[in-house]
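Human: I wish I could look at a protein chain and see how it folds. This is the protein in question:
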Amino acid sequence: MRVIIQDGKRWETLVRPFGRVMVATLLLAVVGGAGIFTFYYVRYSRLIDERLSRPVFPNVSQIYAAPEKLRVGERITRYEVAAQLRLAGFSESQDDTADTTQINSKPKGRFRLTRRGIQIHPGPDSYFSAEPAELEFSDGRLSSIISGKDQFARHELLLEPILITNLFDSSREKRRLVKYPDLPQNLVNAMLSIEDRRFFDHIGIDFLRLAKAIYVDVSTGSARQGASTITQQLARSLFLTQDKTIRRKLAEAMVALQLENRLSKEEIFEHYCNTIYLGYRGSFSILGMGEAAQAYFRKDVAALTLPEAAMLAGIIQSPNRYSPYRNPDLVLNRRKTVLDAMLDTDAITQQQHDDAVAAPLVVSPSHEVSGEAPHFVDMVKRRLLERFSEEELTSQSYRVYTTLDMRLQTAASEAVRAGMEELDKRLAGLRRPRNAQAEDPAAAPVRPEVALVALDRQTGEIKALIGGRNYGISQLNRALASRQPGSIFKPFVYAAALTAYQKGTSTQPWTPMSTVLDEPTTFEFDKKQYQPANYGRVYYGDVTLRTALMKSLNVSTVKLAESIGYDTVVALARRAGINNRIKPTPSIALGAYEITPVEIAGAYTIFANQGIRLDPYFLSVVRNKDGGLLDINYPRKTPVLEPAVAYVMTNMMEDVINHGTGAPVRARGFTAPAAGKTGTTQDGWFAGYTSNLITIVWVGYDDNRELRLTGGAAALPIWTEFMKRAIALPLYSDVREIAPPDAAPEGAVVVSIDPATGELATPACPGTITEFFIKGTEPTKVCHLHYSPEQDRVAAAPPPPSESPSTPAAPVAALPTAPAPIPVAAAPETSVTVPVKPQPAKPAEPPRKKGFWGRIFGG
């Protein structure tokens, strides 16, 4: 139809009703939109107010290591002490007077480096009373400690304990909160340059950046441009889901605007730094820059360098893709992108840019998750849950102080890594047994596992613990897993024998020189037969107890247990803290009943600590957020052995390491005084101790398949590597004789013996040995081969009042070549346990040999 418009009347006629509809529709849309906006604004406003009315992040409990102990004279520098303080949460102060009352960003305290030392000012939140101290150093050693409280000198100083981790919940997320003032400027600039350059200028939404992103997406036909600001990302993390929908985007913008009104820019940035996901470590998610600095660089966030800060800022975009362990080349390229952005924004100079780009990518090795003691932390959490609820632990900011020595834990982690790499190579070179089941060639090879437990010899504190070779793959704590200990149980048989005569369970006194016949033997028990065999089915005839333990002879040990009674052995083992599952059968002598590495570590304290049993423990103190004491633990001591028995047993186990199955310890370069015992079952064990530490190492397969290596070949190398690293640390470097002949405790005697006769040596004896006895069991006759009446009178005369009750040790004769053992065919060892008929004690035969082997064979 043709419409003629004249004087605009027709047009006005046509538009007037249409315009009314349009205006009405537009008005309704505005009102509706305003209503919807108001509804969601109020809704999210309430959500934000509720969230911000309480702490943004959970007040989780924190787990700390034991305090670091510094001693005057130890080899350490002021820079190493400063590094320890930074890890403990101290900040460095540049002025001369650090006022501890003004400490805000780092409540643990401050320190200041001086020309010759370091000044330490603990803050109000310090573990210890706020007593400042000044340390001075000279020639690489700590030369003096002066208290800032009374200006008196101190011999030692405890540093603030290092935070191991924040206690995690079932989500297995680890976070280490940081404050904005503690963030290094390089990290702030790196994050702003690559994530949100106009952060301090926009209102929560960067409209210029948004417009640019829309233009690029439309012009290129893609939707890859990101325009979210740091505030929007925080809004998404704290209040919204990760869904990529229009509705969520609108909500994100609305929340971002409100956050800008409620929080300062610094607070928003701080929350963002504590929120962002930055990859994973082991089985834990890494949340926040504080945890990332520890995970990737083993540093406090304040100590990050420019290349390190750029790397962390770069991986925010895609932490799993930019993993430095899986894709190091991608990470280097991404780091360069961040550095280019920093140069473009004038955050760094060209020289700083070039130096940082050229810097190698150096991150903490992925295996160092063990250095963070994850199995230990799991153990701590389980114990805490026996006393506190999960809600308390994740909301009350408890401070949990443990016994863990972080330096020793790192040494354990490194020793286990090196030892297991060596073990893998040895196992790869072994021929597979004919009866071994074929493995799926497509499946990953089954690798042996490991456990290591190190105790303080005098307190029972667990100082280091490894529960497996890779916590990220398996969280099973093998330090608490029950396995057959094998020959590391044998010392309890020999200790029981040394006390059996006095307790009336043996008709004859047993001494290290007593002999037992080592030959194939069938034992009967409970109408069943038990036929143990020596390793390699090699037998030695008449041997002394010292030799039987030193060579770890199975048959001799079972005969000894039979002679004193299996009940006697079990009773001692249970008093030493070994579980009630062990039974009085012949196989008890060979460690056939299962125990855990932590249990056997505790049991060995009776040998290392003068007969006193020390319960292993790992929780020291638990305090609330105000410092109030909630729980405290002390060493728990139980007398089990006479000090004299522990002394003699230690000497016998020293021979195991110096001349027996543990001799590879010396061949591998560990020269400090030590005692120990190897153990071989399906698994490999080594238990040993010095004057400072008791350490147990277990190696085996989780599925109980045979390791096919002895404890001396599998576990001993790890023990040795760990102990070498341990004694290199200042706190454990003072290793002393553990059974010195000239310091026998009451009830023990050390005498010179003529090896040809086994009798007391005289000055005329051409060669003598030193032997250790429980008082009353030592020889009383003077050597009849080199006898004279004058010597007899001298030997029978009482010692002068001023003399020590112990006879000084005589020099040990040189070691002759060992006689060849007697090979005898024997049935393989079986796990069937049968009773043994009591046999009369066999009297010792007169000595027949001279020199060392006279001592070993006793005749």
